[in-house]
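Memo to structure team: turn this sequence into structure tokens by end of day. - J.P.
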Amino acid sequence: MYTLGIEAFLAIVRTQSLSRAAEKLHLAQSSVSHRLKILEEMMGATLIDRGKGIKEISLTPMGAEFLQLAERWNSLWLETQILKSQGPKLSLSFGAVNSLNTFVFPPLFSAMTQHQPPVILDIHTLHSIPLYEELEKGQIHVGFALREQTLPGVNVERFLTVPMVVLRLGEPSDSNSKLINPNELDPNYELYIPWGPLFQIWHDRWWNPLCMSRIKLESAQLLFTLLQHPLQWAIVPMWIAKSALKEEKFSYYKLSDPPPDIVCYKLTHKYPKPSTLQSLTILDHYLDLLITKDFY
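Reply from structure team:
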């Protein structure tokens, strides 16, 4: 479509005058008339009635119909120019389990939103197994899971390994001040979170698996709200314990016989799309900063 002609047509309609349209566009009146003529030739019809001695213009039936199309075309053209001026944008589809997205990665997300050129983040919260499946299908570009699995199209590497500790009410200054023997913990007051098969084996060794906890959580998101009694306790990764200290009413303790450390695995596709490689490089930069600052 002839953009200069549409610009001239809209200016004439809005100012109701060829001369005023020329002033608005900083053009000679003859140039505006020429552009309109070319547009009408392309459309195969007269769009504006204009004659000698007529001060105000009027639209032909075809011009009235064309006006709506011209407005839409002009709006799209302006949006295109804005997009062009902003330069290239990057995107990254990011997936992780709930506890990581909630307690570990918010500083990462904040940093990436400030990056230039802009990175458009699409954040997903999934369980570990679906993370592998979505990544292999190309639905997400990078994932962070708490279980190791082998899939043909997925690279798996250890990203983070942290100890499991006991979280309970108490002064933050008490944290890590003593070792707790698992026998000291009353299972009736546990807020139980399933941290995987190895954790379950360890847990069953200390407490009867047939004695269900009063509160069982699928994720740790409600933990800070439900942990209200001094006898209550939960076993969590260190990244949750460190986050809890910010609430200034929790403390954490190491166990004399702790469960296996929890491992976070970074998942990427073996054959990433070229358009995502730059975004993944930027992500790795901020991940290094995150580890360096020891958010956990």
